[in-house]
Design brief:
Radius of gyration: 14 Å
Low-confidence stretches: none
Shape: globular
Strand content: 15-25%
Order of helices and strands: EEEHEEEHHH
Bound molecules: zinc ion
Largest sheet: 6 strands, antiparallel
Strand order of the largest sheet: 1-2-3-6-5-4
Helix content: 10-25%
Number of domains: 1
Distance between the termini: 18 Å
Length: about 130
């Protein structure tokens, strides 16, 4: 379990399909390394509603200043910011990624529009990295 990199409160662990996600209701979700791949794989094979998008309250989505930097809740190192399918991800090479509220659903929606993702190819982008 980790502290939210934005507000430093302890995040709540939620589980879907055996994947454990740390959630801060106000700020977003933390995904341990390779969990984003598991999630995108699960969602790629699903029709209809996303399993994961109820994990944060969408009415709390606030404008995020992407010039900000966050520190990894595990090693405290400054995380890199990477833009992927229109979404900013705060990324620690050793531990995982933080997605602001709404960004997980945005990422999944954008991936679904990508024919490479639907064909399974775009996932390789995530395989070793996230
Ligand atoms: Zn928070
Ligand atoms: Zn780290």
């Amino acid at each position: 379990m980790a502290d939210c990199p934005v507000c430093a409160d302890l995040m709540t662990e939620k589980e879907r399909d055996g994947i454990h996600i740390d959630v801060c209701e106000s700020h977003g979700v933390w995904l341990d390394k390779s969990e984003l791949l598991s999630i995108t794989e699960t969602e790629r094979h699903r029709d209809g509603t996303f399993l994961f998008t109820d994990l944060f309250r969408t009415e709390n989505v606030t404008h995020v200043d992407h010039s900000r930097t966050l520190n990894c809740p595990y090693c405290q190192k400054q995380m890199a910011i990477e833009k992927h399918h229109g979404v900013h991800m705060d990324w620690c090479t050793d531990h995982g990624i933080f997605l602001d509220s709404g960004e997980l659903s945005a990422l999944l929606n954008n991936l679904r529009l990508d024919p490479l993702f639907v064909g399974g190819v775009a996932l390789r982008l995530f395989e070793n990295k996230y």
